[in-house]
Please model this.
Amino acid sequence: MAPCKYSSSRKLVSALMVALFCHFELSVGFNPKHLNLSAIGTHWSTAGATWYGSPDGAGSDGGSCGYGKLVSQTPFSSLVTGISPSLYNSGKECGACYQVKCTKNPSCSGKPVRVVITDLCPGGLCLSSSAHFDLSGTSFGAMALPGQEDKLRDAGVLEIGYARVACDYSGKTIAFHVDQGSSSNYFATVIEFEDGDGDLGAVELKEGSSQTWRAMQQSWGAVWKLDAGSQLHPPLSIRLTSQYSGQTLVAKDVIPDGWKPGATYRSLVNYNI
Model:
């Protein structure tokens, strides 16, 4: 690491800022890659916004992240969005939470609305700017003044503000929905309801009879898989690592003996908000 220094010709305020940063870096080991989203301020950027699906719906039935009918149920409650490839990040941002708001249309309330990424918007207007949100009809209308939802949805493409924020699923714990294609030697699961800055950087699986953690691969969207090559021996534990904070959680024995494809198993853990 290069030593912190400044020229005597710099203004006093610059010197103080550098000195403060150096002290902070040396004393607490500052690492921008491990920032906690819950502990930092909200930083707004500009994006385009459209909506799709029915006016009061959830956009599509599930979307490319693999959440299925959950998108219209609590806690998503249809407040979801498709997002441009630049933010979708090949599915790694599935389940990430953003605040969106509009201010430049008379029907805009200017109040932030929290939405969850559940889908990809792969082309068209979603490629026309550096960031684009293709919101559900419900999410788009939620940015409007009371009674002005339909007028706002009729406005076409909007310029909105957006900010990455921590998720809050109101006390829910992380759940694992086993993919229908899973078998005794192949396991895949949709990982649901990660609170806080729980964007996943790594997922690992451990069999009940083993002490070895085996790395799972992101299959698509929010689905992670392990092609074991031999029979898996439940109960299965799953270890999750956040890509933002590096925090690790273990859902011990969350997949029980006798597990079934298509079933959902709820853990006892979640990330802090």
